[in-house]
């Protein structure tokens, strides 16, 4: 086998779609140009499918549409969120594909079989915990830097256009902002050993998590409120800016002094605001 620890997705796409139906027979499967083009198509397709598919499911079945009556919900917001997200996914895919290309050519520490890991199955679970800890820490500091006065207006302000986000705001970033916040995901695989299947599953997981912290469902199981950075924490980030920069956990917000207990859990959240306005409107009639 050539020195290409080929990504499983690319292998499958080559066997079933690209080789028989897409590329002319004169384009060899191992050609760099063909690999880059294939990775670019797969990255865009995968990201858009997860974003629009799961985003739409979340918008229909999880997101409470009453939030759209909130005074800070802007005109045509959903359309604006989708436009910014899809544009961002498109531009982000270029540097992302460069990293995937390096990964499939064996420059990362991704491995194929559990037997290749000296720690076996326990190494696999350790790598998942390590991934969550590492990326949560990096995203916290990257996100916090994005709020620096000189950077904010150029890059991160676009994401904060949406004060009461819907699941479609999950990927609505300036492409540079989105790429920088996705960078820890890739960097981890270049520093620490990680199983390829886990790496792919984590790609889906991080996208779902990003959707979930924008889904307007502010409920969190009691014991997890202090630990997990959920939609209730993240909506306060959208509303009050300098709090709750975290991604999965509240750890770094606590260490960094930026933790804010979610207003939605104190009866002062967006739902409460809408309820109050509706009650006032009913009284005025
Ligand atoms: Zn922010
Ligand atoms: Zn957000």
Structure commentary:
Residues 130-257 form the Fatty acid hydroxylase domain. GO terms for molecular function: iron ion binding; oxidoreductase activity. Its main location: membrane. This protein has 285 residues and is mainly alpha-helical. The chain has one domain. Helix content is 59%, strand content 1%. The protein is built from ten helices and two strands. It has helices at 8-22, 32-61, 77-104, 120-146, 149-152, 175-191, 196-212, 231-240, 251-255, 270-284; strands at 110-111, 194-195. The protein has a two-stranded parallel ribbon. α2 runs antiparallel to α3 (77-104) and α4 runs antiparallel to α6. The termini are far apart. The model is unreliable at 1-6 (pLDDT under 50). It binds zinc ion (ZN) (2 copies). One zinc ion binds at residues 143, 147, 156, 159-160, 237. One zinc ion (ZN) is lined by residues 159, 165, 214, 234, 238.
What order do the helices and strands follow?
HHHEHHHEHHHH
Distance between the first and last residues' Cα: 76 Å
The distinct ligands, each listed once, are:
zinc ion
How many helices in DSSP terms?
10
| Overall spatial form | globular
Low-confidence stretches: 1-6
DSSP E strands, number: 2
Q: Considering DSSP H and I runs of 4 or more, what fraction of the residues is helical?
A: 55-70%
Overall structural domain count: 1
Strand content: under 5%
**Oligomeric state as shown:** single chain
Strand order in the sheet with the most strands: 1-2
Briefly note the structural class of the backbone: mainly alpha
Largest sheet: 2 strands, parallel
Rg, Cα atoms, Å:
21 Å
Q: Return the average pLDDT rounded to an integer.
A: 93
Pfam families: FA_hydroxylase
Domain Fatty acid hydroxylase: 130-257
GO molecular function, one term: iron ion binding
Transmembrane segments: 37-63, 84-102, 122-142
